[in-house]
Amino acid sequence: TLLVMPGGVGDIMGTVTAASGTPLADVTVSLQDTGYTTTTNASGQYSLLNVLPENYTMVFSKHGYITYTQNIVLEEDDELVVNATLQPMPTVNVTGTITASDTGAPINGAAISLSGYQAYSATTNAAGTFTIPGVYSGHTYGYIIAANGYSVMDGTIDVGTTNHNMGTIVLAEMAFSPTGITAEANQTNTAVTLTWVAPNPNGIDLVEGFESTVY
Q1: Which residues contact 42 (CB under 8 A, 6 or more apart)?
Q2: pLDDT tier at 62, thresholds 50, 70, 90
Q3: CA of 177: how far to CAs of 200, 205, 206, in Å?
Q4: How far, in Å, CA of 18 to CA of 24, rounded?
Q5: What secondary structure does DSSP assign to 120-170, as a single string?
Q6: Does the structure show a pLDDT above 90 at 47?
Q7: Cα dist. 209→14, 206, 212 in Å?
Q8: Handedness of CA 20, 26, 29, 30 (dihedral sign)
Q9: Which residue of 63, 177, 185, 215 is 20 to 30 Å from 80, comparing CA positions?
Q10: What pLDDT score was predicted for residue 6?
Q11: Looking at residue 165, what is its pLDDT?
């Protein structure tokens, strides 16, 4: 493959650091709307070589940090040094309380998980409350809440720049039918005594169709 460069080209290089001055590795450095891209090494250094002269927007991005952009002008035979400092993305706490629909009491041991920019999980305490610290702000997260004997609940939340309280979340009791029901009439047939085996509160609903060739 022959790559023909019309006219002269230039190089772009530099170092990316955190706000503390620590070099940042694995930062993606790219020229917006072009195929020029690279990543920083363990010393936070990068280089984009043989770049056509042009006006560019440089983009520096790394997970957990605010994306930084800078406009540059690259001339022929230029060796342009562009350093960047990335600020950490702010984090907040996500809190809430999980209660039961049948009793209104808090549910101890309910599990909640968040998925999105990053995954998080937590478990409620005896008061039914949970706290998920260090959630990156400015993102939408999907959540799933599960507890034995209750239907699973899911949804989404928008996490802003302040602590996010999901409020009181009520899980619907999972209704199970009793088993082993018997009825016995008294000697005068004026009353019937019903007995049954109580449903299993730790049961799990399972729905499976038979249309497929695999069960």
Answers
A1: 23, 25
A2: very high
A3: 9, 12, 14
A4: 6
A5: EEEE--TTSEEEEEEEESSEEEEEEEEETTEEEEEEEEEE-SS-EEEEEEE
A6: yes
A7: 59, 10, 7
A8: negative
A9: 63
A10: 61
A11: 97
Amino acid letter at 19? A
Task: Give the C-alpha separation, 18 to 43, whole Å.
Answer: 12
Closest CA to 10 of 54, 44, 46, 42: 54
Q: Which of 87, 96, 70 is nearest to 137 (CA)?
A: 87
Nearest to 197 by CA among 177, 175, 215, 173: 177
Two tokens at 61? 């991005």
Q: Give the rounded percent of residues in the chain with a pLDDT score beyond 70.
A: 91
Contact assessment for residue 108 and residue 178, using Cβ atoms and an 8 Å cutoff? no
Structure tokens at 17: 């650091």
Q: Is 17 exposed, middle or buried (0-12, 13-18, 19+ CB in 10 A)?
A: middle
**Residue 105 to residue 97: CA distance in whole angstroms:** 10
pLDDT of residue 199: 72
The residue whose two tokens read 């056509």 is: 52
